[in-house]
Amino acid sequence: MNTEYTFYELLRRGENRQFVVPELQRDYVWEEKNWRSLVGQLREAFVRYSAPKENLVLGTSELQADFLAYYRRQHYGHNLGFLYAYHDPAYAGHCFLIDGQQRLTTLFLLLLGTACRGDRTSHFTRHYLTAGGEPCLAYRVRETAQAFLPRFVRHLLDGNTLDSLDPAAPNKPYWLFGHYAHDATVQRLLANYRGMAAWLAEQFAGPEGCKSAANFYDYLHEMVRFWYFDTNQSAQGEELYLSLNASAGD
User: Fold this and answer.
1) CB within 8 A of 169, min separation 6: which ones?
2) Would the pTM count as exceeding 0.85?
3) Long-range contacts from 40-46, C-beta under 8 angstroms, 24+ separation
4) Contact indicator for 190, 32 with CB cutoff of 8 Å
5) What is the pLDDT of residues 32-87, one digit of tens each?
6) Residue ranges of the domains in the chain?
7) What residues does 5 pair with on adjacent strands?
8) Across all residues in the chain, what is the average pLDDT?
């Protein structure tokens, strides 16, 4: 069974609380050209969404409000393709990604950067961290990547700058260990977030920059969707899992 969900809706679907990139998955490897292509598409979709729209004369009933939300999603939303995942009964609340981690990770970083740029960090904390304060996305490809992401996210949500994450910075955090420089996923997370933060600063500069960035954050939260395929609900789930992991997914 599959249907469309926003990232946040996926985190509230069934027993999902955190998406996990398991050990057998490849690293986060997207480069600048990859994230720029995706972010550019989202920016264009946001511009269309923000443009003056046709007037829909509706009443105030719940049914009419639902129709308006559906209409806006259909006309101004953006779909990022399929996510494939499975559940393990031994790990309640965790959903293990099979395919789609590159897109999901990039969207997570963009949401984080836009929340920081648009003063939406409180909203991000409520919706994209678990009850225990962990990011809703966990990397278990290696212990270093697993340990880095929660500290990185908390560091930024606490209002610290990217400059302080420079290994040569005098005020670098205690947890920024030297061996992170040799972890492929950690380095791509850092490089791509730096690039997105610079892009956001260019796109949302000026007196109205914070407000515009907040609107972009809201668009990402409410209007960007995935087709979601839960292999636990498919008789062919095991075969699909093995097939996708034998190839280079995204």
Assistant:
1) 163
2) yes
3) 41/78, 42/78, 42/110, 42/219, 42/220, 42/224, 43/203, 43/216, 45/76, 45/77, 45/78, 45/219, 45/223, 45/224, 46/215, 46/216, 46/219
4) no
5) 999 999 999 999 999 999 886 655 555 566 665 565 566 666 667 899 999 999 98
6) 2-245
7) 226
8) 87
